[in-house]
Prior knowledge:
The chain has eight helices and 14 strands. By secondary structure, the protein is of the alpha/beta class. The protein has one domain (3-278): Metallo-beta-lactamase, Chain A. The longest helix is centred in the C-terminal third of the chain and has 14 residues, at 251-264. The protein is globular and about 50 Å long. The two termini are 13 Å apart. The model has no long low-confidence stretch (mean pLDDT 96).
Amino acid sequence: MPKSKIDPFKFIVWGARGSIPSPGPDTIKYGGNTSCLEVRCGKEIIIFDAGTGIRNLGTKLLKEMPFHATILLSHAHWDHIQGFPFFLPAYMPGNTFDFYGEEQLEVEEVLKRQMISPTFPITLDEMESEFSFYDLKVRGEIKIGEAQIVYDRLNHPGNVTTFRVNYKGKSMVYATDTEHFSCLDPTLLKLAHKTDILIYDAQYTDDEYSGKDGMPRTAWGHSTWNKAVEMAQAAKVKTLILWHHDPYHEDTKIDSIEKQAQKEFKESYAAYEGMEIDLI
Ligand SMILES: [Zn+2]
Ligand SMILES: [Zn+2]
């Protein structure tokens, strides 16, 4: 049996869209679900964000019950939490979940507040799995099984946490929802240094960001594929995954962004639902 089957370090994309779900015939290839990334480190199930992609992940995980998973929330904007009320394993007794988010987020309160009348008919307390909530500081590290998670805060309205997973000599960085500065963000540059995979918020093109194409998107909290490439080169990463696709970007637009990025940094790929990468 290949080593990866016994002791995997891999990730699967369940939602790579930014801001709001965008289903339809023009987004079939990359998908319309919002942020959710499943990571497996050995027996550990680690879920980054609970956007609408977590609904389909839940359907898959029903076959592995009872199970334990860790849910790391980058921040609490809708597109990163709104799938959780539809995550079926959380309703099942026997499953256990550890939630982590930056202290100021008050993760438990945030999840409770999105599940109250009149906007939702079931409360968080009515979900029958066992939940534990843990606060993260601005920066630090935690252990999940044998995986080391190093995290820090990046630039986004209300702040956002970025995570690096180190496992068995390989690594990946999940840097969603971050806006670059006039220079490359030194915090991310350090965290992503020589990582195998950098998943980076590449919501806009340079022209969209500056306002040459439509209204300026400066100070909206997101970055561009051009800055993604610059970061990947400067941090000497092996593979760049373009993430948090703009809801107005159709498949053909994302195809073109991926092609342009590959001209600058060969190992660049636009994330799509179902994308699965084995790191070991
Ligand atoms: Zn977002
Ligand atoms: Zn956000």
